Amino acid sequence: MKYRSVPGLQAAQRGVLLRLTLDRADRRNAVDDTMLDAMIEHIAAAGTDESVRVIRVDTAGPDFCAGSDLIANNSKSDRKPRVGSTQRRLPNKANRLIPVMLETQVPIVAVVRGWTAGLGFHIALAADFCVAAADARFWEPFMARGFTPDSGAAWLLPRLIGMVRTRQLLMLGQEISGATAADWGIIHRAVPEGQLECAADELVSQLGDAPTVALGLTKWLLQSGNGLDLDRHLQNEAMALELSSRSEDFREGMAAFREKRDAKFQGR
């Protein structure tokens, strides 16, 4: 399966890793519709591509992502859009990317440096793991621009950090560092800028070598469990256990346990 690059987004598969790199440094990697469409397409495709075991989302340039490129997305026509154009557009653009990231059973790692705001912030939130430079800057710009949050901000943040801190970010527009984001439990880890690539590579490698079926089903259980009562969730756990215990990686894991050695999972 081929993953094509588009203007503003580099896509490349190397072994089990699909790497998506935001590449509009002159616009602080603000995401336009072309980039959004490609990210949605690639992440959805990777979910059914057995050759991909981990996805990395990172950046070219000093900043991760300044959010959605509103100027580019709103300048495609000289005519004023009809009332409701935003409501019609978002479900197929920014508001589609976040569910695709959450629903795919391939683990996603976001690597953040510099500024990340709005949609960029939410991409980091929707990733399974986010490793950031300690001096990275996370910001929700909505109140400063006079409009309301999008792309899942008011759904993702309370589930991670509760309502009090969510209000600080969304309603007061508080900027926080990568170190604070890790301290609050928003992201997986913050490290000094000079250690960021090494920390990201180690995490990507660990996930790429993990039992892929069990990893994906665990991600599904964590996501689907948000809206279920305990009985239904336990039914899902039983089904996931049934599926994962039929995988080749399960047999390898049990053999490694008996033989007192490290398992060598193949992602099957």
UniProtKB/TrEMBL annotation:
Coiled coil: none annotated. Pfam families: ECH_1 (PF00378). It comes from the Bacteria. GO terms for molecular function: catalytic activity. Belongs to the enoyl-CoA hydratase/isomerase family. This is Enoyl-CoA hydratase. It comes from Mycobacterium asiaticum.
